[in-house]
Design brief:
Helix content: 25-40%
Strand content: 25-35%
Oligomer: single chain
CATH topology: Glucose Oxidase, domain 1
Number of helices: 6
Structural class: alpha/beta
CATH class: Alpha Beta
Distance between the termini: 47 Å
Number of domains: 1
CATH architecture: 3-Layer(bba) Sandwich
């Protein structure tokens, strides 16, 4: 199941290129920690970042974020790596009703079977049933840094089976162009491999004097 945003980004192209190609082509420090993984196979999403921070095991900011979110947003949440159920089926249903396309959280989620059945893309650093509190409003919409990567409202979020990248909004067009060029180059490499060439020669990695 794939969710594609309706917005200024060429979402289908970004999704087709995928996170690995976009990261390599971008030359940016834009990949989120690899501990953040899809909670169900096939989850993928492209959308605008809505950054959120929480208190430890406190999901009140996620409820607030759904009021402030716009259609096409993806919540990108610093959940302090807490292994608790910040998010589940009810919040997924509420998010979808608001036009929110997905969730990326450095923290835990639950109800994973129901998330898969609903087709709501969620990427998290853990799956956990531990309960949360609702005491701290945290922040919604303010810039955050997640795993050393800056995330501002409106940045481009792409998430798939390989991971999650967050591309600065003003760099999105340039990264797309670079990604398309890399895609074309790799298609040429695959054709040459099919014809019997070695990657040592294709990439020019062969040590001198070893022909």
């Amino acid at each position: 199941m794939t969710t594609v945003a309706s917005q200024d980004f060429d979402s289908a192209a970004f999704l087709r290129l995928g996170t690995a190609t976009l990261y390599e082509a971008s030359k940016l420090n834009c990949f989120l920690p690899p501990r953040i993984r899809p909670v169900w196979a096939g989850a993928a999403v492209v959308g605008r970042a809505l950054p959120v921070t929480t208190g430890p095991a406190d999901n009140l900011p996620l409820h607030i974020a759904l009021e402030l979110a716009r259609p096409g947003d993806v919540l990108v949440v610093d959940g302090r790596q807490e292994a608790c159920g910040y998010w589940g089926e009810v919040l997924s249903a509420a998010a979808a009703a608001r036009g929110v396309l997905g969730l990326v959280i450095d923290g835990g989620v639950r109800d994973t079977d129901q998330l898969r059945e609903r087709g709501f893309p969620v990427f998290s650093s853990s799956v956990a049933v531990r309960t949360t509190v609702k005491d701290d409003a945290g922040t919604v919409g303010d810039p955050i840094t997640l795993g050393g990567v800056p995330v501002a409202r409106g940045d481009l979020v792409v998430a798939d089976a390989d991971g999650v990248v967050v591309i600065p909004r003003l760099s999105a067009d340039a990264v797309l162009a670079a990604g398309l060029a890399r895609e074309a180059a790799e298609a040429g490499y695959l054709s040459r491999i099919a014809e019997g060439e070695l990657t040592l020669d294709i990439y020019g990695f062969r040590p001198a004097g070893t022909d």
